[in-house]
Amino acid sequence: MVKYRLLLALTLLVGFALSARAELTIEITQGIDDPTVIAVSPIEAGSAVLPEDISEIVSADLRRSGLFTTIDRGNMLSFPRESSEVYYRDWRVLGAQYLVYGKGERQPDGRLKVTFSLVEVLGEKIVLAQVVHGNDGNLRDIAHYISDKVYEAITGIRGAFSTRIAYVTATAGSGNRLTYRLMVADADGARERMMLESREPLMSPSWSPDGKELVYVSFETGRPAIFRQRLGDASREQLTNFKGLNGAPAWSPDGRKLALVLSKDGNPEIYTLDLASRQFTRITNHFAIDTEPNWTPDGKALVFTSDRGGAPQIYKLTLASGQMERLTFRGSYNARPRLAPDGRTMVMVHRDGGAFHIASQDLISGDFRILTSTQLDESPTVAPNGAMLLYATKRGTKNLLAAVSIDAGVRFLLPAREGDVREPAWSPFLQ
Amino acid sequence: MKGSATSYTWPVTASVLLHGALLAFIVVGWTPAEKPRKVVAPKYIEAKLLQMAPVAAQPEAPPAQPPPQPKAEEPKVDTAAEERRKQQEQQRQEQERQEAVKKEQARQEQLRREQETKAKAAAEQKRKEEQARAEAERQKKEAQAKAEAERKRQEELKRQQELKRQEEIKRQQAEKQRQEQLRREQELARALAAADAELGAEQVGSYIGYIQDRIGANWSRPPSARLGMVTELEITLDGQARVLSVAVVKSSGNAAFDLSAEQAVRRAGQFERLRELIQQDRAAYEQNFRRFRLKFNPQDLRL
User: Fold this and answer.
1) Average per-residue pLDDT for chain B
2) Does B267 lie at the interface with A, CB-CB under 8 angstroms?
3) Mutate which of B229, B260, B270, B271 to test chain A, going by most A C-beta atoms within 10 A?
4) FRET partner for B172 with CA separation of 20 to 30 A, picked from A15, A53, A422, B189?
5) Beta A36-40 vs A68-70: how paired, if at all?
6) Which of B208, B219, B266 shows the shortest C-beta gap to A32?
7) How far is B266 from chain A (nearest CA, A)?
8) Neighbouring C-beta atoms of residue A251, cutoff 10 Å
9) Nearest chain A alpha carbon to B266
10) Beta bridge partners of A68
11) How far is CA B196 from CA A407, B119, B192, B209, in A?
């Protein structure tokens, strides 16, 4: 089958006239990377109105990724539910590159069977067709699932719309005292759920690798202590009760250990805690401050902030060998490292002049970019698909969450909530 | 020609001989009576006195004395004998003088006669010479006329021949020109064809650039696109340069990347400018663009 063909790039044009029989090959080396235009036709179950507007949730998910622009329902000429109802010409006229359509079917047991398809409009080609089962209670999950599949088919990246975020809110309560709440919500901010409420500060939530538990720091005992808590039944357990600082817990990728910071021996040092044996192991030993540990995706090393060089910079410690390596050299302040799932992209808080921004550094190429244009940015957390990151920032006197794509192409603020929102933590992929 | 050459021979020979004889006669038989007098021009010598001083030191040369005059011996004794002898002497001297005169007269007479004879001979000689010259002249004129006629004949012949030759040359030149013209025309035709072909290739090149631009402007890569991903598509266009079909012939391994490439082609939809080519050079269009491959090989990505 392999026929001889002359691959003719532009550089080989010279031989063009002679290669009469060879098939012309034109090389495309540049593109524009505009957002993809997609239309999501309403997905309904017969004439019954569903409690959630699935297609609107999908549209919002895709829009928020920054990689898509969606077509308003009001501009659609028809609402196809299946392939026979798709008039491609109409969608071409609207400029849609892709169309999502589908329908819900009520099953005898009351459950909902949702069939959906993704078609490429210009090629009139079905890219994706799936069936998903659910019920009226998890229509948002169905919607996020559709978003994930559509996103992955078009971008080649696993969708993270079905994931969750944890964060801490602080609202003024009675007597002007702040009330702290540990919250968990869908990645789009919906279905917010309170995990814990406290009159004392709550800090540094971190997800277990299975997405079923959180660890965090609570001052409820009068001094900082690390707790773990299950999401399902809200059961919790105190893990540390040392004098001084107990902070910055980070769950290891295999779920067996925590990395944390304790100052029980005088100054903040990084320890690991074996969750099964409750054994603490001191990892760093330096008179400077070592803090904010984060695991590499393979679990073999920790990255952390240390001012052992005179100013906060990020170091990497390989656990097996104890080998220490400084990773950041740009500017006089780089802190709170978080590694993307590829283990290559590291995000951090970077001070640029007087402003604190979120920056990313490619650990292989060294490519360094400041991702945010807001100021006083802190607590970056990377989505499990590595495409976006969340961080806390300030607008006026208010703390709120913002998102930015990891290549800085898209930036947006999450819908403002009541009170201050801090310390976001993006969950891993959930089952 | 040869006959005329021989006909020259005897007059020329005669002429040469006559002239030779004449010359010999002049040289041997006749010498001029008087030698030409040589006039000596007086020579003036200009002298300048250059120095005065050393003259005082030197003794003055004595003035040149006139040479002593020889004194004729004069008889000192006046006697009768002496008188007689003197008279006799005078008579003898008179006689001698008369004789010398007579002699001189005879010599003069002789000389006059000799001169007369010589003049006569010279006149005769001159007449003869004149005759010979006239004869020679005549012969020469005759020969010249003959030669002239011959020359004219020859010239005419030559002219005729030249004319012929010129005509031949002209004919040849015309032929050559015709050939040259033909060759030039053929060359021109060839050059035109080559230029056409080149133009075709150039045009095809410009259309390739156009297609690259069109598709590049429509290619929106997914965020999962990475440097080194290559997708190859086979495109089929219809007779109006509209995209008929797009097929992935070589996948990048990333379905979204492949899809983005397909999308780029479909979004381009129709290559309007190719319709110019279709009108101008349908064959070039059919050959190059009816079916071709697109290689998507991003070079402008960060990762």
Assistant:
1) 81
2) yes
3) B260
4) B189
5) parallel
6) B219
7) 6
8) 22
9) A122
10) A36
11) 49, 104, 6, 20
Contacts of residue B286 in chain A, CB cutoff 8 Å?
none
**CA–CA min distance B184, chain A (Å):** 25
With CB atoms and an 8 Å threshold, state whether B216 touches A28. Answer: yes
pLDDT in tens, A175-207: 778 899 999 999 888 888 999 999 999 999 999
Cα–Cα distance measured from residue A283 to residue B252, given in angstroms and rounded to the nearest whole number: 43
Amino acid, res. A210: D
A84: helix, strand or coil: helix
Answer for the pair B191, B265: CB distance below 8 angstroms, yes or no.
no
Chain A and chain B share a number of CB contacts under 8 A equal to 131
Note which residues in 142-201 of chain B have CB less than 8 A from chain A. Answer: 197-198, 200-201
Considering only CA atoms, which of A273, A201, A200, A281 is closest in space to residue A239? A273
For A75-219, strand residue ranges (E) read 98-106, 112-120, 125-134, 164-172, 178-186, 193-198, 202-207, 213-218
Handedness of CA B138, B141, B143, B146 (dihedral sign): negative
ipTM: 0.71
Q: What is the pLDDT of residues B175-229, one digit of tens each?
A: 999 999 999 888 888 887 777 666 667 777 888 889 989 998 888 888 888 888 9
Sign of CA dihedral A221, A224, A225, A231: positive
A209/A187 Cα distance (integer angstroms)? 16
> Is residue A269 within 8 Å of A263, Cβ to Cβ?
yes
CB neighbour burial string for A43-52, b if at least 16 within 10 angstroms, e if fewer = bbbeeeebeb
**What token pair was written down for A78?**
């028809």
- Locate the chain A residue with the closest alpha carbon to B227: A29
Q: Among positive and negative, which fits the CA dihedral A288, A293, A297, A301?
A: positive
Give me the residue from B197, B220, B295 closest to A28, CB to CB. B295
- Of the pLDDT bands very low, low, confident and very high (cuts 50, 70, 90), residue B48 is low
Q: What CA–CA distance (Å, rounded) separates B262 from B255? A: 10
Indicate yes or no: pTM above 0.95: no
Q: Do B220 and A34 touch (CB under 8 A)?
A: yes
CB atoms within 10 A of CB B122: 13
